[in-house]
Amino acid sequence: MAVIAKARALRKRLTPAEARLWVALRRLRAQGLHFRRQAPVRGYILDFVCMDRLLIVELDGASHDGEDRQRKDRVRDAVLARVGFLTLRFSNLSVRDALDDVVQTVRRHCLARPTRLSLRASHPPRDGEGEFL
User: Which residue segment(s) compose the domain that 52 sits in?
Assistant: First the structure.
């Protein structure tokens, strides 16, 4: 429960770059791309996530420049990739200076990924269901 409380608190105090990107990502809803902000997933709090497309968007400020932090980010990205997530990382500066490019990159990656519903449809039926050949 502590992770959920922390995520709620983080939603109330987005960084300027996160707030700017959040406004832009919300515009993608008209295209069927729904993002959550500061969402808890598997013990991590994700800056932004489109659960339907299993796409994570992370904003990295100066605190991510250190080697230890970058290693932790790689581990986190790998853990989430094992369950199907793709993580896109952008710097705060790129959101400040090239927001449209960031949003178009996110949009392009989202639309290129299958939806969770289509992923489920490709799985074979459970034992006892479906037709016998």
Answer: 2-121
- How far is it, in rounded angstroms, from Cα 85 to Cα 56? 7
- 24-46 pLDDT, tens digit each: 999 999 999 999 999 999 889 99
- Output the pTM of the full model: 0.79
pLDDT recorded at residue 126 = 58
Beta pairing, strands 36-41 & 44-50: antiparallel
Question: H or E segment at 128?
Answer: none
| Cβ atoms within 10 Å of 95's Cβ, excluding its own | 22
Check: CB of residue 48 under 8 Å from CB of residue 21.
Answer: yes
The CATH number of residue 25's host domain is: 3.40.960.10
- Residue 30, token pair as written in the block: 């008209």
